[in-house]
Amino acid sequence: MTRTKLIAGNWKMNGLAASTAELDKIIAGAKELPSRVELLICPPFTLIDRFADRAERSRVAVGAQDAHPKASGAHTGCVSAAMLKDAGATHVIVGHSERRTDQKETDAEVNAKAAAVIGEGLIAIVCVGETEAERDAGRALDVVGTQLAGSLPAGSTAANLVVAYEPVWAIGTGRTPSTADVAEMHAHIRTRLRDQLGAEGEGVRILYGGSVKASNAAELLAVADVDGALVGGASLTAEQFLPIAQAV
Ligand SMILES: O=C(CO)COP(=O)(O)O
C-alpha cells in the first residue's frame, strides 16, 4: 500500500524567535517538493504559536514534542494537548527516548499522552526504540514489541497515529543501523501494528529516526515499511533538512 512519506523535524530544546527565518526557508523550499511527501517541524513549545501562524497555508505542518495526559489542571510547568491544538499544532511526538530516559516516562504514561493527543483530534507520533545493550543482547525486537503493546492507545488508526522507530544508540551519534536491520525492525513493527490495530495497522506510517541526514536519507527511505523520517540535528536548518525530503 502507498503511504504518503512524512519527513518530520524534532527541534528538541533548540530555537529562539530568530529561528523563524529558518522556518521561512523550509516553507519556501517545501513548495518545490513532490506531493508524495509531507513536512512537519516540531519546535519547542515557545515557538509553536509563532511557527503555526507562519506556516499557515504552506506545505509545512507544525507539531509539539510532548503533551500532558490531562486537558487542564494543577500541573505546574506542563502543557496539554488541548493547549497545543489551540496554539496551532497538528501533531505531537510522545514517548521520545530522551523523555523515557530523562523524565522516566513509562509505556503507560506514553499511552495516556497519546490517547490525549488523539482525543483532541491531533496526530500522535509514538516513539519506540532499543538501547545499544538491548540490541547487543539480541532483544531489540522484543523490546520494541513490548513498547508498542504498552504505548499505543485504544482507538489508534492510520489517520491519528504515526510510529517512530528510533534506536537510542543511533540518536545524535552519527551511527545508523544497517538497512537490513532497519527492514527487519520495520517489518516487525508492521506485523505488531496489524495484530494490534487490524486493517488500520497497514496504513499507519512508520518513521525511522537516528542520525538521518542528506547523505543517508535516500538509502534509509528506500527500505520497505520506512514511511518517512524523524530528524533531529539535521532538521534545524533548511539547508540540511530539505535535501532529506528531496530524497523521498
Ligand atoms: O532523536 C531524534 C529525532 O527525534 C534523532 O536525532 P538525530 O537526528 O539528531 O540523531
TrEMBL record:
<keyword id="KW-0324">Glycolysis</keyword>
<dbReference type="GO" id="GO:0004807">
    <property type="term" value="F:triose-phosphate isomerase activity"/>
</dbReference>
<keyword id="KW-0963">Cytoplasm</keyword>
<feature type="active site" description="Electrophile">
    <location>
        <position position="96"/>
    </location>
</feature>
<dbReference type="InterPro" id="IPR035990">
    <property type="entry name" value="TIM_sf"/>
</dbReference>
<dbReference type="InterPro" id="IPR000652">
    <property type="entry name" value="Triosephosphate_isomerase"/>
</dbReference>
<feature type="active site" description="Proton acceptor">
    <location>
        <position position="166"/>
    </location>
</feature>
<keyword id="KW-0312">Gluconeogenesis</keyword>
<dbReference type="InterPro" id="IPR020861">
    <property type="entry name" value="Triosephosphate_isomerase_AS"/>
</dbReference>
<dbReference type="Pfam" id="PF00121">
    <property type="entry name" value="TIM"/>
</dbReference>
<dbReference type="InterPro" id="IPR022896">
    <property type="entry name" value="TrioseP_Isoase_bac/euk"/>
</dbReference>
<comment type="pathway">
    <text>Carbohydrate degradation; glycolysis; D-glyceraldehyde 3-phosphate from glycerone phosphate: step 1/1.</text>
</comment>
<comment type="function">
    <text>Involved in the gluconeogenesis. Catalyzes stereospecifically the conversion of dihydroxyacetone phosphate (DHAP) to D-glyceraldehyde-3-phosphate (G3P).</text>
</comment>
<keyword id="KW-0413">Isomerase</keyword>
<comment type="similarity">
    <text>Belongs to the triosephosphate isomerase family.</text>
</comment>
<comment type="pathway">
    <text>Carbohydrate biosynthesis; gluconeogenesis.</text>
</comment>
<feature type="binding site">
    <location>
        <position position="211"/>
    </location>
    <ligand>
        <name>substrate</name>
    </ligand>
</feature>
<feature type="binding site">
    <location>
        <position position="172"/>
    </location>
    <ligand>
        <name>substrate</name>
    </ligand>
</feature>
<protein>
    <recommendedName>
        <fullName>Triosephosphate isomerase</fullName>
        <ecNumber>5.3.1.1</ecNumber>
    </recommendedName>
</protein>
<feature type="binding site">
    <location>
        <begin position="10"/>
        <end position="12"/>
    </location>
    <ligand>
        <name>substrate</name>
    </ligand>
</feature>
<feature type="binding site">
    <location>
        <begin position="232"/>
        <end position="233"/>
    </location>
    <ligand>
        <name>substrate</name>
    </ligand>
</feature>
<dbReference type="InterPro" id="IPR013785">
    <property type="entry name" value="Aldolase_TIM"/>
</dbReference>
<comment type="subunit">
    <text>Homodimer.</text>
</comment>
